Amino acid sequence: MGPSADRRLKPDVSAFGIVLTANAAGGFERVEGTSFSAPLVAGLAACAQQASGGRLTAMQLFRQVREAGELFPYYDYAHGYGRPEASRLLARLKGPLPAVAPTFDFVVHDSLVAVVLRPAATVPAARPLPLVAEADELAPGTTDWLSPPAPAPPAVSPTPAAPNVAPVGKEQPAPADTAPALAAYPAYPPHLYWHLANARGVLHRYEVRATTQRLVVQVPRRLTRGGNVLRVYYQGFTGEYHE
Q: Which of 5, 6, 66, 159 keeps 20 to 30 A from 102, CA to CA?
């Protein structure tokens, strides 16, 4: 978690760092850490250098990787500029990326500025989001997508339990008609990222919110004065508000 001691942005980007590894007992375990995420970023940097014909300086390459982050130009001290994507990096080598259509609006009301999602930006979803949803009175069916479908009754006899995972080196290929061990993940609703930064880019506050309604956050307008900036990212679009 950032920032650095002199208040610079850290981390610069994020990368996937969770793997399944073999252990000494002959089984498998989940391990996570920068030992797995750092090589992914290094490999991406190598691709960028190769795509440029080896002409990038160290700082140019550093900026290319930063700007390939999925959140760029938004940033915070937990994600940096987000996960760098090869498609964005290679596209930027060819020129500026096309502008992204706005997905939210800043709505000023008295002493507050509100971030309101545009209706079109909330579809597709489980259903179009309401402007406001009571947290303690969710409408029936709102979270149905979180529940796995009920299994169909067996036609003849119950399906036998799956055997334990075979030891390392003794794995056997699964039959072609074997169903996948895990069902596909549901399409989780996207998240909105926002922060308050001063004129030097140092963050006063940052937050990630699940979008359960179109009115996502309200900030006192006084916090956006004196060089401070409210910056918001949602669905590929980054917007700023300041007075």
A: 66
